[in-house]
Amino acid sequence: MQLLYARLSPFVRKIMVLLEEADKAGEVELIDGFGSPTAPNDAVVAVNPIGKIPCLVKDDGVAIYDSRVIARYLDNRFATGLYPDDDRIWTTLTLEAHADGMLDAAVISVYETRCRDEAIRSAEWVAGQHAKITRGLDALESHWLDHLAGPMDMGHVGVGCALGYLDFRAELGGWSDWRDGRPGLTAWGDRFLERASMKATSPA
Ligand SMILES: N[C@@H](CCC(=O)N[C@@H](CS)C(=O)NCC(=O)O)C(=O)O
Fold first, then answer.
1. Cα 11 to ligand 1 centre (Å)
2. What is the percentage of the chain residues whose pLDDT exceeds 90?
3. CB distance 106 to ligand 1 below 6 Å
4. Which of 11, 12, 55 is the best mutation target for the ligand 1 pocket, counting ligand atoms within 8 Å of the beta carbon and taking the most?
5. In the list 50, 67, 157, 161, which could disulfide-bond 11, CB 3.0-4.6 Å?
């Protein structure tokens, strides 16, 4: 299997954390897929017309994306235990989508700075993205701590990667510290970021 990837991508990190947790990192060949909406990566576009990473090229040559599809595929293949096989699956998938939604808003905010000339940047639009991140973080603090305290699933991985990205890109993204006013999330997040799989995949 080949994984089109970039070390700094938080969506790629979700997949790398899954592989580390399953002790299967050696099963994928990593191929550079770094790009952006304004400078797409040719190797990525050749297999994923949307031009985004992660993209996994399976042993049969078929490409699958996005991160949630790849994670389900790898879970199916390696029995990671990161997706419950009972009704709890809907909670897990919702939390993973919640984390991905925060990440989409964060990545878009960074692209606004990296990919657009200053003259055409919109502060109002970036503020709208930041508001999504803030609401997402507030919901983690008010609604999700019980779940996060339970058995680890792919929702935990998504949230961990989102918090790691908010730390890593704080300066470029211009958002405030996710820890501010969120003691429960701070305790959980700082502990999760210390996991071996998170350390092994850290962008810093
Ligand atoms: N929904 C996608 C999002 C992936 C994504 O946004 N990846 C970024 C890197 S962090 C990317 O490839 N950006 C290039 C682009 O938007 O053209 C997923 O979960 O995999």
1. 7
2. 99
3. no
4. 11
5. 67
Mean pLDDT, all residues of the chain: 97
Ligand 1 in contact with 142 (CB < 6 A)?
A: no
Superfamily of domain 2-78: Glutaredoxin (3.40.30.10)
User: What spatial distance separates the first Cα and last Cα of the chain, rounded to whole Å?
Assistant: 26
Q: Where are the domains of the chain?
A: 2-78, 89-200
Confidence class for position 204, pLDDT limits 50, 70, 90: confident
Question: What is the second-level CATH architecture of the domain 89-200?
Answer: Up-down Bundle (1.20)
